[in-house]
Write a structure and sequence with these properties.
- The protein is α/β, with parallel strands linked by helices and 126 residues long.
- The protein has one domain (2-116).
- The chain is 44% helix and 21% strand.
- It is built from five helices and five strands, in the order βαβααβββαα.
- It has a five-stranded mixed sheet.
- α1 (9-24) runs parallel beside α5.
- The longest helix has 18 residues, at 108-125.
- The protein is globular, with a radius of gyration of 14 Å.
- The model has no long low-confidence stretch (mean pLDDT 86).
Length: 126
């Protein structure tokens, strides 16, 4: 599960990579969800998400949650642009929080490393 504050190219790359992993791991029923927090009307997020999904052929759910601490189950502060939580069934097996500098540096190579850690966390939790 990914919680993000922006629907930008970094998130699109990450969502696309996660989508690819979900496709590869269909036999183990791997699932993923991307939650973007913000005001859908104010930021035109719905349009950005649709474009992201079409361009990258993303099939995993991409959703918008209006910014409200009661809705998002993890602490995603205004200073935290990205949180990735790995679940196995209902148990959290790992969590990665990205500060603004780490998020700015989220390159394709860093995304590959993140996907590798994701695979490792799930294998270790099985």
């Amino acid at each position: 599960m990914v919680f993000a504050r922006a629907a930008d190219d970094r998130l699109a790359s990450l969502a696309g990579a996660i989508n690819g992993l979900v496709e590869q791991q269909k036999q183990v029923n791997l699932r993923a969800l991307v939650v973007i927090t913000g005001d859908p009307a104010k930021e035109d997020l719905l349009k950005k998400i649709r474009e992201m999904a079409e361009k990258r052929k993303i099939q995993i759910p991409l959703t918008i949650v209006k910014e409200d601490d009661k809705v998002v189950p993890v602490k995603v502060t205004k200073e935290t642009p990205l949180v990735v939580v790995y679940y196995n069934k209902v148990k959290v097996v790992a969590r990665e929080t990205f500060n603004p500098e780490q998020y700015k540096g989220l390159s394709e190579d860093k995304i590959k490393e993140l996907i590798g850690r994701f695979k490792k966390a799930l294998v270790g939790a099985a």
